[in-house]
Amino acid sequence: MTGAASNNTLYGPPLADAEGIGALTLGSFLLDVSERYGDRELLVFYEGGQRISWSYRDLQEQALALASAMVAGGVSKGTRVGIVMGSRPECVAAIFAAALAGAVAVPLSTMASADELAYLIRQADIHTLFTQKELGGKHPLLQTLYRISPELREAGYSERFPYLKTVVALGTDHSEGSVVCWQDYLSNGVSVPQSLILARNSEVSPADAGLIIYSSGSTANPKGVLHTQRAPTLQAWHQARIFCRTTETRMWTTFPLFWTAGFNTVMGATMAAGGCWVMQELFEAGAAIALIQKERVTEPYALPHHTGAMEEHADWAQADFSAVRCVSGRSPFCRHPSVTARDKNWHGVWAYGASETCAISISHYANTDPAIITASAGRLLPGNSLRVVDTNNGDTLAVGEEGELCIKGPTLMERYVKAAREDCFDADGFFHTGDSGYYDSEGYVHWTGRLTDMIKTAGANVSPAEVQRVIQRVLPTFKISQVVGLPDDKLGQIVVLCVVLQEGESQSEEEVRATLKQHLASYKVPRRVLFFDEKDVPMTASGEKVKDAELRELAAARIKNAE
Predict the structure, then answer these.
(1) I need a labelling partner for 289 at 20 to 30 A (CA). Which of 15, 54, 321, 454 fits?
(2) What is the phi/psi pair of residue 385, to 5°?
(3) What was the pLDDT predicted at 415?
(4) Selection from 480, 105, 129, 134 nearest residue 260 by Cα
(5) What does the pLDDT read at residue 217?
(6) Which domains does the chain carry?
């Protein structure tokens, strides 16, 4: 897969030449993979000690029945269907049922506060909302809805959510007001034949609206990213190949479906390959270890703090992970004595993307040589094009010149919800990512960081992302590491590294700096290294990202108190 540059625009391979592409609407995607893989196991979920297993055909049947109920309840083409559920089979069914009915699926964060959830439901104009009574025994989702809109319990409407007609709740045994229990809702669909659902689905085009994903902003309101039907389905077919998934893949993860990684990399790519997803609603290290063993997982897909917590758990040392095949060399699984059948040609995926591109737009493949993988973000996926723009004058830059990355392609969003297209893209239809980088003469794209995150020290620019990549490679003793810039009277800013050490590890500030001096230019080496307890590191509600602004405040206070 090589890129070609023309008039300072880098092009990926033609989309028409892409291999392995099937149906390009979500409803037809489900019908496609169900026909291919039929009775193969797709979803495994444990609840109350019971093992729940759905095949591809089971999911199709459940989604068709739920789509009939949606049509009976007034869902039509373009209707916004919200899903506030954990990663469980019914959540997957609700997503594909919405697609089969011609609606737009809107997975919403189960981690949102009451105020955040209220904003999302109203901003997305949700008509029908699927939820569950509680999530993992910890999060009372239905009670949260009652708290933000008490009238849902009694009236057939909510002035706070003027488009909301119905809330469908899993885990309740009775209906009240606008809230309908799951089984009652399903029973309403018996009058709508599946032939009507299939007829509706046949009139859905890849260009029709299909998905809204909300960005995970930590300071401003999240933005709703509106995608066509083609965007998530094309991502599924591409990513099945990128991750080298097969019918033998048994993947475990706790990634939620309101992230593009959960929607596409986890659900979509696994289905496109005919694999199986071992689901866990909420991460708990001991339960994760048990699931990975019992279900003979071949690909554990986790964030570093997940694998770190598992490695520190008492059950880790004696666990049997002999089925694990697909783990990168950086993973703690590679250090486990039972992982003896690891696929040595599978090295993980380094990629670049965003919610606005429905996940990946630039990538390596998992079977790429590690030396190539670590050198860049990869090459453009088929149909994509890239420009690098000078942020000072708007000029399009040439090969090797660093500026803002601007992307256009077949999985780029239609627009933000309730925003005009001209406010989302430049005159040529490119999306300005806010990220800095460049591309080289071989078509590899290099991401150097967020434009707003650049640290300016002694007149030089330092990319936190660049320093971070070196740290991940040469300092495996860190469980969490984050590079931030702090004000300095002499230098303008200084580079500061904030870390949480793996349990049982010990390292001094000078040892860390000495190691990094061997791999970084002197001005990029952090002038201070601050060690934190994991509980003190401010994280977003999802637990996925460190809150940089709050961490900077903590780091500044720590340095000031030490003076």
Answers:
(1) 54
(2) -140, 155
(3) 97
(4) 105
(5) 47
(6) 4-16+349-452 (2.30.38.10), 26-236 (3.40.50.12780), 455-562 (3.30.300.30)
